[in-house]
Design goal:
The protein is α/β, with parallel strands linked by helices. It is built from ten helices and seven strands. The protein is globular, with a radius of gyration of 20 Å. The model has no long low-confidence stretch (mean pLDDT 89).
């Protein structure tokens, strides 16, 4: 994507893409971050979404609202990285000050990889559902958020079923703490306000091979660890 394609307002498009890549994914947050008024930013978001096909709009599960409560994400992982780190620090690179930029990037990389891992798990689960994997018999998969600042990494269920999967995404199984049980319980309570399910499957998706003792410990609490590395046999 070049400056010429965006035209004279390329700066606005770039600032929106940078804001979204940096984690400002909701309408008002993007407006605040870019300085573009809320009643004007819709035009640019719509063009990035429908004309340039650079971003996608997602709603929280259980929500039918595609408006201002939706979140926007860059579709391409490379562009996400570029706008989050390179474009954002372009003045440093121009002045050959990359040494001051690198520590900032290293500090933020766990956040970037954590988000990408969440995205990967949701996309992967959606594919499993399409391929009728019996382990994941769902027709709705997504992320949950609400105005009370509650967030759940993964929620999956059947529209006509009474069974729900609640998922936590951890790049490393070392990040799983003893509080995970209480966290899942609170998440089930949050979901039950939207829709009551007979059963909740609690799963921690991890990006490494979790120790057997950790798996057994959580299994005793009704929590399953699903290690992606083990599944794909990397």
């Amino acid at each position: 994507m070049t400056i010429e394609e965006f035209g004279k307002n390329y700066g606005r498009y770039f600032s929106i893409l940078e804001a979204i890549a940096s984690g400002h994914t909701q309408w008002n947050d993007i407006s605040t971050q870019t300085g573009i008024l809320p009643n004007s930013i819709g035009k640019y978001l719509d063009e990035l979404l429908n004309y340039y096909d650079l971003i996608e709009r997602k709603s929280s599960v259980f929500s039918k609202d595609n408006g201002k409560s939706s979140r926007y994400y860059l579709k391409d992982n490379f562009l996400t990285f570029w706008f989050r780190y390179v474009h954002k620090n372009f003045s440093l690179l121009e002045n050959y000050s990359s040494d001051s930029m690198i520590p900032k990037v290293k500090e933020d990389l766990p956040n970037f990889f954590g988000f990408q891992f969440e995205k990967f798990i949701i996309d992967w689960l959606q594919r499993q559902c399409i391929e009728n994997n019996s382990k994941f018999p769902f027709d709705v998969v997504g992320k949950y958020w609400d105005r009370g600042n509650n967030e759940i990494d993964v929620v999956a269920y059947q529209e006509k079923g009474d069974f729900c999967l609640i998922g936590e995404c951890k790049l490393s199984s070392k990040r799983i703490t003893s509080a995970i049980d209480n966290k899942f319980q609170k998440q089930a309570e949050i979901i039950s306000r939207k829709r009551r399910f007979r059963e909740y499957r609690k799963v921690v998706f991890v990006g490494d091979i979790a120790p057997d003792e950790l798996k057994l410990s959580l299994q005793g609490k009704g929590i399953e660890i699903f290690d992606v590395v083990g599944y794909f046999h990397f």
